[in-house]
Amino acid sequence: MFGAVVCGASYPVIDKKLTGSVAPKRITSFINLLGFALMTPMELCAAWSCNFGAVAAAIPKLDICGTLAPHLRTSLRVHHR
Q1: What is the band of 52 on the pLDDT scale with cuts at 50, 70, 90?
Q2: CA quadruple 24, 5, 34, 60: dihedral positive or negative?
Q3: Strand positions, DSSP E, the chain
Q4: Contacts of 56 (CB under 8 A, 6+ apart)
Q5: How far apart, in whole angstroms, are the C-alpha atoms of residue 29 and residue 43?
Q6: What pTM did the predictor assign?
Q7: Residue 41 sits in which domain range?
């Protein structure tokens, strides 16, 4: 939870600092990379103790769609400016 809060709070700060000097696509890429770097260690720890056999087949597909949707929306918004 702490990583998610730090990640969410850092987005507007980073965006305001970089808006004048960096292209929007680069800002989006940097923020996504930052989120990946902050959350991956905790996700790996959680995955280590997870029983993946108990997960229904449809859940991973929904999770992938839910994960990709914000990134696709951001990418489409940046490309249409």
Answers
A1: confident
A2: negative
A3: none
A4: none
A5: 20
A6: 0.51
A7: 2-79
